[in-house]
Structures are given as structure tokens and as C-alpha cells.
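USER: Please consider what follows.
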Amino acid sequence: AKVMMVVQPGERNAFDQRWIEYNLLKKYGDIETFHGIVLIRKTLAEVAEQGRLDQETKALYIYTFSVAYYRSAYATTDYPTEKEWEGRLLAERSLAIKCPTIAYQLVGAKKVQQVLAAPGQLERFVKDPESAAQLRASFTGLYPLDNSPEGLAAYQAAMDNSDELVMKPQREGGGNNIYGKDIQKVLKTLTEDQRNAYILMDIIRPPITKNVLLRKGELQRADVVSELGIYGIFLHDGQKPIRNDNGGHLLRTKGVESNEGGVAAGFAVIDSVLLV
């Protein structure tokens, strides 16, 4: 079996990617001879150039891949030419397990999150009222910036006071959100149609703690905030779930003064949870 990891050209954030590669071999094969579940790295352009889709079986041939695991293809810069789009379409049409599929990637888009948070939408997918209420209690406020009555009201609220808001585009990878008074400045430059590309969110104010960060080889005492992410495992056959489970967690900690939270970008550090 082979896993295709779709990566960016000249990828520098490869340390955890290699860890996955070596552990697949260690757990399911022979790391000395590279027999077993082998991970092969390809860019979207390489998928388009080297890939072939069997019209009958829908098997993806560069090698025959069982899984297409995306560590790129989330940003507009990952699609500089038509070739990258062709590579994504080729992989998406194949029978390989996609992580994620196009549909699941879109679920994480800011606009989709905002729509799912609207009254009545969550209940379409979570039928148990008590479970839906528990989930909704964890939501922060999400608002459109379109020409609907809700969008116009959100626009006016931001122009009146944007201190407790975040303005988000349909982008991933960090460095794209707009905060505080900068929201009003940006909104003044956008047309009504251009505002459709953004949503507004109530800013989350996590509790501030004191901690020690290791940065550039130096220990720094600082006021920090943390963000806990829970990994989910979800495998389905197109009709029904095969596995739906918890897959661990990631805790990132950053200085309280920072709006950004990327580790590779230098804003945050990997942390561990202290159970009390």
C-alpha cells in the first residue's frame, strides 16, 4: 500500500511529515528496506504531470495510491496555474481515500462555518435537541457581511465598534484575519460585492496565564493564551460512517499580545496540557 502526501514545492515545514512517513514504515513495514506502507511526496503539479486515472477502476496511477493526504492545496497560492487544478481534480476523481475530500475541506471554510452556526442549520445534521444545544453553546458569534439584513446589520455594528470583532476571509494558513480598528479601515475600501468574501466573528478572549516559552534558544517568561485543537478521525464509504473517533489533541500557546497563532510562522509554540 502507498500513501501520497500532497506537499508544496520546496516544503520547509516537513519535520512532522517525515515523522508520519517513518512511523508508517515502523508500524506497518520494514523501515530498513522500505517495504510496507510507503509514503511518497508529490506536488499538485506532479500529480497532474505523472498521474493517470484508470477509467474503469478509478485507480490513480503514479504509483497505485490508497490514500491522498493533503499537506498543501489549502491556499490560493497552491494553485498558481491550471496544472495544479488538474492535479487536484485527478486525485479527487480517483478511488483513493482523500484526507480531506473537497467537501470536507469546504466544511472548514469560514463562510460555511458561519452558515452552519445560523439558527436551525446545526439541527439539520444533529437530530438530538440536547446534543445540538450542547454544541451550539460552544459557538461564538458568527455573522455574514453580505447584503442580507443580517449582513447589513453586522456591517453597521462593525463600523460603530469593531474592538471585539475579527474579520475573516475564506483563507487558511494564518496571517489573513483583520482585527479591531483595522476592520473599519478595510470595510471602507470594499464594495458591497467584495464584502461577500468575508465574515465577522466575535473575538474569543481566552484566560491569560503565565508561562515560560522557549524561543530562539532563549527562555522567556510571558503572559500567554492557549488554543486547544482536538483531532477527529472520520472515515466513510460515501454512504455511511466506518469510523468516527477522537484522534488526540494539539495545544498551541502564544504571547497574549499576538493575534496570530502559527508555530512554523514563529508566533506560537507547541505546549502540553496540565490536568488539574
